[in-house]
Amino acid sequence: MAAHEILAATNAVVTLDVALPGTVWPWLVTVNMWAKSIGTGVIFMLFLLIRKHPEQVGGNLRFSTTVVSIIFIHIFLLFTLADLHQPFRMWHIFFYPHLSSAITIGAWMATAFVGLLFLLAFLSFIKKDNAAFDKTLTWVTILAIPVTLYTAALMSQCTARELWQMPTESAQMIFAALLSGSATMILLGGKKLNYEAKNTLAVVLGLSAFMSFTLYMAEYIFGPMKAEEVAAVLEYIKGDGPYTVMFWLGQWITYLLPMLLIVLSRASKSENILKLAAILALAGLWLVKHVWLMIPQLLPMS
Amino acid sequence: MQLGFLVDLHLCMGCKGCEIACKVENEVPLSTWRLRVKYVDVGTFPETKRTFTPLRCNHCENAPCERICPVSALHYLDNGIVNIDKERCIGCAGCVMACPYGAIYIDPQTQTADKCTYCAHRIASSMMPACVVACPVQANIFGDLDDPTSNISKYIQVNQGNVQVRKPEKGTNPHHYYVGGGNVTLNPLASHRVDGHQLFNNITTLPVGGHH
Fold first, then answer.
1. Which pLDDT score is estimated for B199?
2. Which residues of B touch A85 (CB under 8 A)?
3. pTM value > 0.90
4. Nearest-by-Cβ selection for A300 from B106, B188, B209
5. Measuring CA to CA, how many Å separate B169 from each of A206, A229, A301, B87, B109?
6. What residue ranges define each of the domains in chain A, with the CATH number in brackets?
7. Which of A32, A156, B61, B174 is most exposed by smallest CB count within 10 Å?
8. How far is Cα B160 from Cα B84, in angstroms, rounded to an integer?
9. Averaged over B51-73, what is the pLDDT?
């Protein structure tokens, strides 16, 4: 249970209550967030590479990046559907939409995003028209921003979960997309990208890891000073809390080790070290997202 | 019309009659509750006291569940009740995550969200909610908050200064009030919840909707 101060004189103990609901949003939602980060992140990185290293981005990379994005966005959609208790009613979102809900807006945007991704695939694979692809990619990149952010809005609409605040969560979503997108592109780039292009991706990976880690540490240290509920939730990742190990494992694998490895790879110009950093960041991101999703759900609401 | 609820905790004796009446009236499935009474023991032996707090949907004026529902399954009625259309619900559980009062559950039979509706079906037939009828000490007071002559309005006026809502800091403006409540009864963080807090078994959590 969460630790909080209870005066001895008013020592209060729940002696009879019904069983409370367990985890409401399980690991399926973690996969949802993780896959969406990759699906939108690679689009951000492709846009960046085309602007910064146009000579390095051929038709092949345009197409393969689009395919990777399509695959991960569909993983995201599949797990979203799997998490619904009435998945066959998903169509209600389009026919009975409630526009104050981030879920509705997100579903619509994700649908448009998928449509545009298939258009990109068509332009790169069938028409082989790089100019049209790049023009369309600009709009896809713009749309990828709210598609990335809407989960933060959804989490913020969860009034019960004080830990999830829109300013921090939206920043974390963007950093997660940049981190996972750059990591995926480092792995996907292979021999198609030269060292300079990979170096650009490494800088994005390192900076997003740094920023994300800083935000988590800021919440870890300063969050409890603001709200009783946040303090209680963060107890689950402190001391011998149930998610302490997973939290720190996630921080090391996703942020600290990749940052260290990026510095090493730049010093030694080793692409293999860079690839290791990318793999760690991608694997660790799942842990980090999972911990942050789970801990507010452990707190009794009533 | 703005229907509201008030529970006088000075009167409640924790008989759970309201809980049972709600279960029967609304055919609430096993392992789920629209209304429950929580017991919290306060103090250190021999100076102890047991408190009883009936907990149900607060029918908030600014309901987070209504706002987050992607298909308007949760919606406001003209009389202020936050109602639910189970046929429309897609079971995303966003409302369960949004409700700061833990008042919404996933019905294991229909796999849709459900909660207290202040017995909207009974209200439509000019009857009182089942829990109000069942209460042997009239601790549940129900009525129109917009009508200054209603029992609930008078009760609030008489008890000015001693009327509380749960988690006012959430800005939900609940239409469910308590008289005689305190930090221990209304704030879940103010009491220990140790494993095995049930009298009859050690089950402290249940899977949402029966799976996941």
1. 64
2. 90-93, 106, 111-112, 209
3. yes
4. B188
5. 39, 11, 14, 33, 34
6. 23-298 (1.20.1630.10)
7. B61
8. 32
9. 97
